[in-house]
Amino acid sequence: MMIVMKTGATEEEIQHVVERVEGVGAKAHLSRGEEVTVIGAVGDREHVMRLGLEGSAGVDRVVPILKPYKLASPQLRGGAPSVLEVAGRKVGGDHFALIAGPCTVESRDQTLDTARVVKAAGGTMLRGGAYKPRTSPYAFAGLGQAGLRILGEAKEETGLPIVTELMDTRDIEAVVEVADVIQVGARNMQNYALLAEIGRSGVPTLIKRGPSSTLEELLMAAEYVLKEGNENVMLCERGIRTFETAYRFTLDLTAIPVLKEMTHLPVIVDPSHAAGRRSLVESLSLGAAAAGADGIIVEVHPEPEEAICDGPQQLETDGFAAYVEKLERAAAVAGKTLSGAAA
Ligand code: PEP
Ligand code: MN
Fold first, then answer.
1. I need a surface site. Which of 23, 148, 202, 285 has the fewest CB within 10 A?
2. pLDDT for position 76
3. Atom 4 (ligand 1): residue with closest C-alpha?
4. What is the CATH number of domain 84-338?
């Protein structure tokens, strides 16, 4: 159920509703908009209904949320998009986030060189994996803690917030030492223990859509994080598995406007893993930005031919600034501006 408070409802009135909701064993999630506060009551619907909150002081109306995802539903924010803040940078609404960096942290030089290029081009955040999900158990799986330390150095030097993947709940403490955004990989989208742990950490997260997952399943994954009180969730479309074999995955651009109807959460697009080939990355990026994505997460490397993983799809640092200029223009078509550090 969603309890919409009246404009100007007092703090006491809000707290009173929260207490009554929690008194019947439901969880109250407060969402404070510019004018109106909405309280999402998640729990036994009958119990909340029986409270008869309609007519209580400060309450405007009580509305059922019919979708299985409650806290991700657009009603919770009265139709307004969520604007997240990551280390002073905004994501969502009119703010377009450019998250760029290597697939994997391979060395200090490779990561720092890339970070400098991303920063100079006006990037919003630096990406890079220290823990890598690999199809083969024999493939390089990342530098682990040594990789996290390198990301820490890159952050220190450039000031760019770090996006890095967490695969195992046992590594969360080490990862959050450096991560400003925890990435949940496509293969882990339905790892519910991992999602709940990230929810409890409160650290912003970017959840990648599983290659065979529906949008509703993606939103249910987000719900696991939101349910723990962590509102800082970004969704990521990174290509889905279809019958087409001419490229790695099929980038589902339709997911962008449809997710905007289904949720208030920001939608980021990963053109790199969808394409699998460098030559396609720019077109997919521009298409996604013009279609209203709230950001792009893209792989870039100083020497992609030498990359340990995902070489064929990583952009070269040479030419990255020109790519960003085009991307900014495409984002402007959708009314968005590149998000940088707060002035
Ligand atoms: C990645 O971003 O490094 C990655 C492995 O992506 P995905 O989980 O989408 O395959
Ligand atoms: Mn990769």
1. 23
2. 87
3. 185
4. 3.20.20.70
Locate 215 and state its tokens: 């949008």
Query: What Cα–Cα distance (Å) separates residue 170 from each residue in 200, 226, 305, 313?
Result: 14, 21, 33, 30
Atom of ligand 1 nearest to the CA of 183: 2
- The string of pLDDT tens digits covering residues 277-322 is 999 999 999 999 999 999 999 999 999 999 999 999 999 999 999 9
**Top mutation candidate among 104, 135, 163, 165 for ligand 1, by most atoms within 8 Å of CB:** 165
Kindly state if the Cβ of 142 falls inside 6 Å of ligand 1.
no
pLDDT value, residue 265: 98
Please say whether the beta carbons of 49 and 89 come within 8 A. no
Whether residue 185 has its Cβ less than 6 Å from ligand 1: yes
Q: Distance from the CA of 104 to the center of ligand 2, in angstroms?
A: 7
Sequence spans of domains, the chain: 2-64, 84-338
Query: What does the alpha-carbon distance between residue 98 and residue 123 come to, in Å, rounded to a whole number?
Result: 5
pLDDT tens-digit series, residues 191-224: 999 999 999 999 999 999 999 999 999 999 999 9
81 within ligand 1 shell (Cβ under 6 A): no
In the predicted structure, residue 137 carries a pLDDT above the cut 70: yes
Pick the CATH number of 2-64 from 3.30.70.1140, 3.40.50.970, 3.40.630.10, 3.40.50.1100: 3.30.70.1140
Q: Residue 38 C-alpha to ligand 1 middle, in angstroms?
A: 35
What pTM does this model have?
0.95
* Tens digit of each residue's pLDDT (9 = 90 or more) over 249-280: 999 999 999 999 999 999 999 999 999 999 99
String of DSSP letters for 142-178? --THHHHHHHHHHHHHH---EEEE---GGGHHHHHHH
User: Dihedral, CA atoms, 42, 44, 46, 48, nearest 10 degrees?
Assistant: -40
Any ligand 1 atom below 6 A from CB of 312: no
Ligand 1 pocket test, pick from 104, 183, 234, 248 with the greatest ligand atom count within 8 Å of Cβ, gives 183
Ligand 1 centroid, distance to 186 Cα (angstroms): 6
Measured from the CA of 133, which atom of ligand 1 is nearest? 5
